[in-house]
Amino acid sequence: MSFPKNFIWGVSASSYQIEGAAFEDGKGLSIWDRYTHRPGKIWNNHNGDVAADHYHRYKEDIALMKEIGVQSYQVSVSWPRVLPDGTGKVNKKGLDFYDRVIDELLNANILPIIEIYHWETPYELYCRGSWLNPDSPDWFADFTRVLVDKYSDRVSHWITMNEPQCFIGEGYWDATAAPGDKLGIKEVLRAGHHALLAHGKSVQAIRAYSKTSEPAVGIIIVGITKMPHTSSKEDIDAARQLMFMVPDNSYWENACYWNNTWWFDPVLLGKYPEDGLNLYGRDAPEVGPNDMKIISEPLDFIGTNIYHANRVRAGKDGCPEEVIPPPGSPISAMRWPIEPGCLYWGPKFFYERYKTPIMITESGMSNYDTVSLDGKVHDPQRIDFLQKHLLQLEKAIGEGADVRGYFQWSIMDNFEWAEGYKERFGLIYVDFVTQQRILKDSAHWYKKVIATNGEYIKENPFK
Ligand code: GCO
Question: What whole-number distance in Å separates Cα of residue 280 and Cα of residue 192?
Fold first, then answer.
């Protein structure tokens, strides 16, 4: 077993989480610029005004990526940096920033993948209703076109948007992310429908205007992964069943948006799942005659972010039930369970259902890393985490799951949304006071993994 020859070893990050320069060079405000300045929303009232100062340090950061040997990097774009009002006038300085980033990456032999939207809705568009506004899909298509016109002579890989479950569900239902509104289920689902339409129109714009003959286009959806508690057929079926259902809110918290099929099915199968439609009834969004055709524009890959899994077994009455991990089971600093099997069962189940090539667009671990007296950052837990997860991914690929790439989240420590700078996910340590960068042990380890196309994961990293 080994990783395919053209497998892509990458890293990811997102604009608001690393760029800083929130009020510079003509950038407009995003909903995150507003939300983080509302007292009590973010741990210790942190914000992304400066973040990792990547806006000014992108050259240094790309040099470090090169040192690690990274093959690809997801460049996420801040919408209001490019279009301060969300539509209309382009901010040349903002557009030029990503242009320079792309050139720098290409010079370092790193494949840039443009991620058009990682939650940074322009505040001006929020004031016009944002994703609730039926014009929002067209706003997003116009924004896409601006990027495609400028970058597609050099960029061939595009991701329309990242995690609708989060920016719709957390943003509009439970208010734990910007814009922090609590809407009713009908509005939430309507906003979600517009976001999916925006995705579809964005795909159309990429294909219509790309200067690259065959652009590769995808979307990122959270891969909420369930894995069987034992290898029995009953438990495997139970895990699969739970992974692909739209449960009601009594089943697990926020199930109304925290599920896979409500988001993946329209995009890949061209329809909302029956169980979800039955559950929502009259609250389900109105679907126009062409909507599903637009939403399900063919994709070259699906990106999915998988960080953990819940264990599931067949309950006595035949219904799947989640298994609470026994006391002492490993968890990360984020208090997410550590279940390396998520990168086996996740890709396996997703590929089985959707038969579309997969990129693992985020995978990684938060850890409270510190600088040791030797000036280095030793993070054996992260190495252990990545090694175990990659071994599982390799197994899934060996058994036929078509996974084309793996992106570690994140290239560097960054602003972890509601958790502020408390959580560190990076391969590169960032001192947020001095902005000094230090390659963690895990970065040196990942370098060897990339250089050997994954063979190095079989070595004991601690001998
Ligand atoms: C998400 C986002 C990232 C996070 C990362 C760790 O999954 O919420 O895509 O921006 O920072 O996943 O939580």
Answer: 13
**What spacing in Å lies between the alpha carbon of 373 and ligand 1's midpoint?**
30
pTM: 0.98
Closest protein CA for atom 4 of ligand 1? 416
CA 34–ligand 1 middle distance (angstroms): 19
pLDDT tens, residue order, the chain (463 aa): 789 999 999 999 999 999 999 999 999 999 999 999 999 999 999 999 999 999 999 999 999 999 999 999 999 999 999 999 999 999 999 999 999 999 999 999 999 999 999 999 999 999 999 999 999 999 999 999 999 999 999 999 999 999 999 999 999 999 999 999 999 999 999 999 999 999 999 999 999 999 999 999 999 999 999 999 999 999 999 999 999 999 887 666 677 789 999 999 999 999 999 999 999 999 999 999 999 999 999 999 999 999 999 999 999 888 899 999 999 999 999 999 999 999 999 999 999 999 999 999 999 999 999 999 999 999 999 999 999 999 999 999 999 999 999 999 999 999 999 999 999 999 999 999 999 999 999 999 999 999 999 999 999 999 9
- What is the whole-number distance in angstroms between the Cα of residue 30 and the centre of ligand 1? 18
- Is the CB of 361 within 6 Å of ligand 1? no
379 within ligand 1 shell (Cβ under 6 A): no
Instruction: Report the separation in Å between the CA atom of 461 and the middle of ligand 1, taken as the mean of its atom positions.
Output: 27
What is the C-alpha separation between 358 and 403, in angstroms, rounded? 5
Residue-wise DSSP of 291-315:
HHHHHT---SEEEEE---EEEEEE-
Q: In a mutational test of the pocket of ligand 1, which residue from 409, 414, 419, 423 has the highest number of ligand atoms less than 8 Å from its CB? A: 409
Distance CA 424, CA 382 (A): 11
What is the C-alpha radius of gyration for the chain, rounded to an integer number of angstroms? 21
Q: How far apart are CA 137 and CA 448, in angstroms?
A: 42
Mutate to test the pocket of ligand 1, among 335, 362, 363, 414 (most ligand atoms within 8 A of CB): 362
